[in-house]
Amino acid sequence: MKITTLVGFTSLALLFAFIPVSGVRATIYAQQLKLEGLCSNADRIFRGTVMDITRGEIKVGGGTLSTVTYHLKVKENIAGEKVENIPFTMIADPKAPVQQGNHRRLPMMELPELVQGKEYLLFTTKPSKIGLSSPVGLALGCFTIWSKEGKDYVVNGANNVGLGPMPLRNRKRGMV
Fold this sequence. Notes:
This protein has helices at about 5-20, 35-40; strands at about 45-60, 65-80, 85-90, 100, 105, 120-125, 140-150, 150-155. By secondary structure, it is an alpha+beta fold. The model is unreliable at about 1-30 (pLDDT under 50).
């Protein structure tokens, strides 16, 4: 047997021997969605302002989940049921960051927290059997809206990355 082959097999054996000892690390993957994906996965798409925020709990599966309900005044219905006001209930800050020794792992994508008085463009999922919903793709389907010099701008929790191509003249942050 050649020395290079022997070294290759030894390296491979050491690699496989090390894998079980190294431990498995959990990773959260968030599917990157383009604008078409956000639209096709949304039950509702609307522009609205958060008027009130209510914290609560629901009992399900023998346990209790903390919830937050955002009461939004709809400025524009884009898709889904046409309404003037929407109560939008989702899980509230489900878990604290995971700590293992000196290492702290944060979730890759977090549930967006809406702010009272701010305006949003939301792509929301159909409410579940227990009444919970979320923005499609979590932070991807939650766009903050602001105006400047008569133009409206939107930006989601991923800074609009991956939504699709933008014309060169509109490549400023969030311009629509």
